[in-house]
Amino acid sequence: MKVLVVGVGTMGARHVQGCLRAEGVECVYVLDKDDKAIQYMKNIVSDDPICDLDKVQIVSDFKALPRKVDLCIVATSARGRAPLLFSLVKTIHAEFWVCEKLLEQSIDAIDSIEKYMRGQNCWVNTPRRVKKIYNKVPRIDPKEPFKAQVVGKTWGIASNAIHYIDYFEYLTDRQVVSLDTTGLDSNWYSTKRPGYFDVNGELEISFENGGKLTLVSNEEELGLKLSIRTNTREIIIDELQDEYRCADEVEIMESEFQSDLMPIIITDLQNARRCNLPDLRTSARQHRLIISSLLDKSPTKTLSHPILEAT
Fold first, then answer.
1. What distance, in Å, lies between the first and last C-alpha atoms of the chain?
2. What are the phi and psi torsion angles at 175 (to 5°)?
3. Inter-helix orientation angle 35-46/10-21, to 10°
4. I need a labelling partner for 246 at 20 to 30 A (CA). Which of 88, 93, 122, 265 fits?
5. Each residue of 161-189: pLDDT tens digit?
6. How would you class 295 by CB atoms within 10 Å of its CB: exposed for 0-12, middle for 13-18, buried for 19 or more?
7. Distance CA 45, CA 119 (A)
Protein backbone atom coordinates (compact mmCIF):
# COMPACT_ATOMS: atom_id res chain seq x y z
CA MET A 1 0.00 0.00 0.00
CA LYS A 2 1.18 3.50 -0.89
CA VAL A 3 -0.02 6.29 1.39
CA LEU A 4 0.02 10.07 1.05
CA VAL A 5 -0.20 12.19 4.22
CA VAL A 6 -0.95 15.87 3.58
CA GLY A 7 0.08 18.02 6.52
CA VAL A 8 2.40 16.71 9.24
CA GLY A 9 1.73 18.87 12.25
CA THR A 10 1.02 17.18 15.56
CA MET A 11 -1.73 14.93 14.22
CA GLY A 12 -0.27 14.40 10.77
CA ALA A 13 3.02 13.18 12.21
CA ARG A 14 1.14 10.56 14.22
CA HIS A 15 -0.67 9.49 11.07
CA VAL A 16 2.70 8.91 9.40
CA GLN A 17 3.89 6.96 12.42
CA GLY A 18 0.75 4.82 12.41
CA CYS A 19 1.00 4.14 8.68
CA LEU A 20 4.58 2.97 9.05
CA ARG A 21 3.48 0.61 11.82
CA ALA A 22 0.85 -0.99 9.58
CA GLU A 23 1.52 -4.18 7.67
CA GLY A 24 1.57 -3.87 3.91
CA VAL A 25 2.55 -0.19 3.75
CA GLU A 26 5.53 0.10 1.45
CA CYS A 27 5.80 3.87 1.13
CA VAL A 28 4.44 6.99 2.85
CA TYR A 29 4.57 10.21 0.85
CA VAL A 30 4.48 13.38 2.94
CA LEU A 31 3.32 16.72 1.54
CA ASP A 32 4.17 19.74 3.69
CA LYS A 33 6.13 22.93 3.04
CA ASP A 34 6.85 23.63 6.72
CA ASP A 35 10.41 22.58 7.53
CA LYS A 36 9.66 22.54 11.27
CA ALA A 37 6.71 20.21 10.73
CA ILE A 38 8.83 17.92 8.56
CA GLN A 39 11.53 17.77 11.21
CA TYR A 40 8.94 17.12 13.92
CA MET A 41 7.59 14.20 11.90
CA LYS A 42 11.08 12.82 11.34
CA ASN A 43 11.80 12.97 15.06
CA ILE A 44 8.58 11.11 15.87
CA VAL A 45 9.32 8.39 13.32
CA SER A 46 12.99 8.07 14.25
CA ASP A 47 12.14 7.58 17.92
CA ASP A 48 9.80 4.66 17.09
CA PRO A 49 11.73 1.37 16.67
CA ILE A 50 8.82 -0.10 14.67
CA CYS A 51 9.01 2.62 12.00
CA ASP A 52 11.38 2.85 9.05
CA LEU A 53 12.13 6.45 8.05
CA ASP A 54 13.51 5.18 4.73
CA LYS A 55 9.91 4.44 3.69
CA VAL A 56 9.05 8.15 3.93
CA GLN A 57 9.33 10.35 0.84
CA ILE A 58 9.04 14.12 1.35
CA VAL A 59 7.14 16.01 -1.36
CA SER A 60 7.20 19.81 -1.38
CA ASP A 61 4.60 20.63 -4.06
CA PHE A 62 1.74 19.17 -6.07
CA LYS A 63 3.90 18.66 -9.17
CA ALA A 64 5.96 16.04 -7.35
CA LEU A 65 2.98 14.06 -6.04
CA PRO A 66 2.52 10.48 -7.21
CA ARG A 67 -0.40 10.19 -9.60
CA LYS A 68 -1.86 7.21 -7.76
CA VAL A 69 -1.90 6.16 -4.10
CA ASP A 70 -3.95 3.66 -2.16
CA LEU A 71 -4.75 5.99 0.73
CA CYS A 72 -4.64 9.78 1.11
CA ILE A 73 -4.82 11.20 4.64
CA VAL A 74 -5.55 14.93 4.84
CA ALA A 75 -4.38 16.25 8.20
CA THR A 76 -4.06 19.98 7.54
CA SER A 77 -5.89 22.60 9.60
CA ALA A 78 -9.60 22.92 8.91
CA ARG A 79 -9.51 26.38 7.36
CA GLY A 80 -9.01 26.05 3.61
CA ARG A 81 -9.63 22.29 3.53
CA ALA A 82 -12.24 22.54 0.76
CA PRO A 83 -9.99 24.10 -1.91
CA LEU A 84 -7.16 21.80 -0.87
CA LEU A 85 -9.30 18.72 -1.43
CA PHE A 86 -10.43 20.13 -4.78
CA SER A 87 -6.79 20.44 -5.85
CA LEU A 88 -5.90 16.99 -4.56
CA VAL A 89 -8.79 15.28 -6.33
CA LYS A 90 -7.74 16.94 -9.60
CA THR A 91 -4.10 15.92 -9.12
CA ILE A 92 -4.12 12.36 -7.77
CA HIS A 93 -6.20 9.22 -7.73
CA ALA A 94 -6.63 7.73 -4.26
CA GLU A 95 -8.51 4.50 -3.63
CA PHE A 96 -9.34 5.65 -0.10
CA TRP A 97 -9.39 8.98 1.73
CA VAL A 98 -9.30 9.86 5.43
CA CYS A 99 -9.81 13.49 6.48
CA GLU A 100 -9.11 14.97 9.87
CA LYS A 101 -11.79 16.79 11.76
CA LEU A 102 -12.86 19.52 11.79
CA LEU A 103 -13.62 19.23 8.11
CA GLU A 104 -14.00 22.96 7.47
CA GLN A 105 -15.15 26.26 8.96
CA SER A 106 -18.50 26.96 7.28
CA ILE A 107 -21.53 25.15 5.93
CA ASP A 108 -20.76 26.36 2.41
CA ALA A 109 -17.29 24.84 2.68
CA ILE A 110 -18.73 21.56 3.98
CA ASP A 111 -21.10 21.52 1.01
CA SER A 112 -18.15 22.09 -1.32
CA ILE A 113 -16.21 19.20 0.21
CA GLU A 114 -19.13 16.85 -0.33
CA LYS A 115 -19.36 18.03 -3.93
CA TYR A 116 -15.63 17.63 -4.63
CA MET A 117 -15.47 14.21 -2.94
CA ARG A 118 -18.59 12.77 -4.53
CA GLY A 119 -17.89 9.20 -5.62
CA GLN A 120 -14.77 8.90 -3.45
CA ASN A 121 -14.33 6.38 -0.63
CA CYS A 122 -13.84 8.92 2.14
CA TRP A 123 -14.05 8.73 5.94
CA VAL A 124 -13.52 11.33 8.68
CA ASN A 125 -11.24 10.75 11.65
CA THR A 126 -13.49 10.86 14.70
CA PRO A 127 -12.18 7.57 16.08
CA ARG A 128 -13.94 6.96 19.39
CA ARG A 129 -16.00 4.29 17.68
CA VAL A 130 -12.67 2.55 16.89
CA LYS A 131 -11.06 2.76 20.33
CA LYS A 132 -11.28 -0.28 22.61
CA ILE A 133 -12.33 1.55 25.76
CA TYR A 134 -15.41 3.05 24.06
CA ASN A 135 -16.27 -0.27 22.43
CA LYS A 136 -16.56 -1.80 25.91
CA VAL A 137 -19.76 0.19 26.32
CA PRO A 138 -22.73 -2.04 25.34
CA ARG A 139 -24.71 -0.70 22.40
CA ILE A 140 -27.82 1.17 23.52
CA ASP A 141 -31.15 0.17 21.98
CA PRO A 142 -32.31 2.94 19.59
CA LYS A 143 -35.56 3.28 21.55
CA GLU A 144 -34.04 3.29 25.04
CA PRO A 145 -33.65 6.70 26.71
CA PHE A 146 -30.17 7.64 27.89
CA LYS A 147 -28.42 10.51 29.59
CA ALA A 148 -24.73 11.16 29.07
CA GLN A 149 -22.37 13.87 30.19
CA VAL A 150 -18.81 14.89 29.38
CA VAL A 151 -17.20 17.11 32.00
CA GLY A 152 -13.68 18.49 31.87
CA LYS A 153 -11.29 21.38 32.18
CA THR A 154 -11.26 23.71 29.15
CA TRP A 155 -11.20 20.85 26.66
CA GLY A 156 -12.56 22.62 23.59
CA ILE A 157 -16.26 22.10 23.04
CA ALA A 158 -16.38 23.78 19.62
CA SER A 159 -13.62 21.65 18.15
CA ASN A 160 -14.29 18.37 19.96
CA ALA A 161 -18.08 18.10 20.17
CA ILE A 162 -17.97 16.26 16.84
CA HIS A 163 -16.24 13.32 18.55
CA TYR A 164 -19.08 12.79 21.00
CA ILE A 165 -21.88 13.43 18.54
CA ASP A 166 -20.44 10.81 16.21
CA TYR A 167 -19.77 8.33 19.01
CA PHE A 168 -23.28 8.52 20.45
CA GLU A 169 -24.93 8.31 17.04
CA TYR A 170 -22.86 5.14 16.53
CA LEU A 171 -23.49 3.78 20.05
CA THR A 172 -27.26 4.34 19.97
CA ASP A 173 -28.01 4.06 16.24
CA ARG A 174 -29.94 7.33 16.28
CA GLN A 175 -29.32 10.87 15.08
CA VAL A 176 -28.99 14.24 16.78
CA VAL A 177 -32.13 16.35 16.50
CA SER A 178 -31.01 19.61 18.15
CA LEU A 179 -28.20 21.47 19.94
CA ASP A 180 -28.88 23.99 22.72
CA THR A 181 -26.08 26.56 23.01
CA THR A 182 -27.67 28.87 25.59
CA GLY A 183 -25.37 27.55 28.32
CA LEU A 184 -22.17 28.45 26.48
CA ASP A 185 -20.06 31.40 27.62
CA SER A 186 -20.31 34.61 25.61
CA ASN A 187 -16.53 35.12 25.72
CA TRP A 188 -14.49 32.74 23.60
CA TYR A 189 -10.81 32.04 24.35
CA SER A 190 -7.84 31.88 21.99
CA THR A 191 -6.45 28.41 21.34
CA LYS A 192 -2.83 27.45 20.78
CA ARG A 193 -3.38 27.80 17.04
CA PRO A 194 -3.24 31.53 16.17
CA GLY A 195 -6.51 32.88 14.86
CA TYR A 196 -8.65 30.04 16.21
CA PHE A 197 -11.00 30.20 19.17
CA ASP A 198 -13.00 27.87 21.40
CA VAL A 199 -15.50 28.24 24.20
CA ASN A 200 -16.31 27.05 27.72
CA GLY A 201 -19.74 26.46 29.18
CA GLU A 202 -22.46 23.87 28.60
CA LEU A 203 -23.77 22.42 25.35
CA GLU A 204 -26.89 20.23 25.39
CA ILE A 205 -27.37 17.77 22.54
CA SER A 206 -30.69 15.99 22.02
CA PHE A 207 -31.04 12.69 20.15
CA GLU A 208 -34.02 10.83 18.82
CA ASN A 209 -36.12 8.79 21.26
CA GLY A 210 -35.17 10.53 24.47
CA GLY A 211 -31.40 10.62 24.29
CA LYS A 212 -29.56 13.53 25.93
CA LEU A 213 -25.84 14.37 25.89
CA THR A 214 -24.45 17.33 27.84
CA LEU A 215 -20.95 18.66 27.25
CA VAL A 216 -19.44 20.77 30.06
CA SER A 217 -16.15 22.62 29.86
CA ASN A 218 -14.82 25.11 32.40
CA GLU A 219 -11.66 26.16 34.20
CA GLU A 220 -12.68 24.67 37.56
CA GLU A 221 -13.06 21.01 36.58
CA LEU A 222 -10.26 18.47 36.71
CA GLY A 223 -9.58 15.83 34.07
CA LEU A 224 -12.10 14.72 31.46
CA LYS A 225 -14.83 12.20 32.28
CA LEU A 226 -17.67 10.66 30.31
CA SER A 227 -20.70 9.23 32.13
CA ILE A 228 -23.51 7.25 30.50
CA ARG A 229 -26.76 6.33 32.21
CA THR A 230 -29.54 4.10 30.85
CA ASN A 231 -32.44 2.27 32.47
CA THR A 232 -30.16 -0.67 33.31
CA ARG A 233 -26.61 0.61 33.86
CA GLU A 234 -24.25 3.47 34.58
CA ILE A 235 -20.84 3.65 32.98
CA ILE A 236 -18.05 6.13 33.67
CA ILE A 237 -14.97 6.52 31.48
CA ASP A 238 -12.07 8.59 32.79
CA GLU A 239 -10.70 9.67 29.43
CA LEU A 240 -7.34 10.90 30.69
CA GLN A 241 -6.67 7.87 32.89
CA ASP A 242 -8.21 5.35 30.43
CA GLU A 243 -10.33 3.92 33.24
CA TYR A 244 -13.59 2.09 32.48
CA ARG A 245 -16.05 1.68 35.36
CA CYS A 246 -19.41 -0.12 35.32
CA ALA A 247 -20.91 -1.28 38.63
CA ASP A 248 -18.19 -3.41 40.29
CA GLU A 249 -16.15 -3.70 37.09
CA VAL A 250 -13.14 -1.40 36.97
CA GLU A 251 -10.55 -1.72 34.24
CA ILE A 252 -7.55 0.42 33.39
CA MET A 253 -7.02 0.06 29.68
CA GLU A 254 -3.97 0.73 27.56
CA SER A 255 -3.95 4.21 26.05
CA GLU A 256 -4.57 4.33 22.32
CA PHE A 257 -3.29 7.16 20.19
CA GLN A 258 -3.59 7.93 16.50
CA SER A 259 -0.40 6.00 15.80
CA ASP A 260 -2.08 2.94 17.36
CA LEU A 261 -5.34 3.36 15.45
CA MET A 262 -4.02 3.83 11.92
CA PRO A 263 -2.79 0.22 11.58
CA ILE A 264 -6.32 -0.94 12.49
CA ILE A 265 -7.90 1.41 9.96
CA ILE A 266 -5.44 0.43 7.23
CA THR A 267 -5.98 -3.29 7.86
CA ASP A 268 -9.74 -2.80 7.57
CA LEU A 269 -9.33 -0.89 4.32
CA GLN A 270 -7.06 -3.57 2.89
CA ASN A 271 -9.30 -6.48 3.92
CA ALA A 272 -12.81 -5.06 3.67
CA ARG A 273 -12.42 -1.88 1.60
CA ARG A 274 -14.06 0.04 4.43
CA CYS A 275 -13.29 1.07 8.01
CA ASN A 276 -15.25 1.86 11.15
CA LEU A 277 -14.82 5.62 10.96
CA PRO A 278 -17.88 7.65 9.91
CA ASP A 279 -18.17 8.15 6.18
CA LEU A 280 -17.97 11.66 4.75
CA ARG A 281 -21.73 12.02 4.27
CA THR A 282 -22.45 11.12 7.91
CA SER A 283 -19.72 13.37 9.27
CA ALA A 284 -20.69 16.28 7.02
CA ARG A 285 -24.23 16.15 8.40
CA GLN A 286 -22.83 16.18 11.94
CA HIS A 287 -20.50 19.08 11.10
CA ARG A 288 -23.40 21.13 9.73
CA LEU A 289 -25.30 20.69 12.99
CA ILE A 290 -22.36 21.94 15.02
CA ILE A 291 -21.43 24.79 12.71
CA SER A 292 -24.99 26.09 12.38
CA SER A 293 -25.38 26.06 16.18
CA LEU A 294 -22.01 27.51 17.17
CA LEU A 295 -20.92 29.80 14.37
CA ASP A 296 -23.15 32.75 15.28
CA LYS A 297 -21.83 32.62 18.86
CA SER A 298 -18.18 32.77 17.78
CA PRO A 299 -16.62 36.27 17.98
CA THR A 300 -14.72 35.72 14.73
CA LYS A 301 -17.33 33.55 12.97
CA THR A 302 -14.85 30.68 12.87
CA LEU A 303 -14.56 27.40 14.74
CA SER A 304 -11.40 26.14 16.38
CA HIS A 305 -9.27 23.43 14.87
CA PRO A 306 -8.77 20.48 17.28
CA ILE A 307 -5.90 21.13 19.67
CA LEU A 308 -6.08 18.08 21.96
CA GLU A 309 -4.51 15.07 20.24
CA ALA A 310 -5.71 12.61 22.86
CA THR A 311 -9.34 13.47 22.19
1. 28
2. -105, 160
3. 40
4. 265
5. 999 999 999 999 999 999 999 999 999 99
6. middle
7. 33
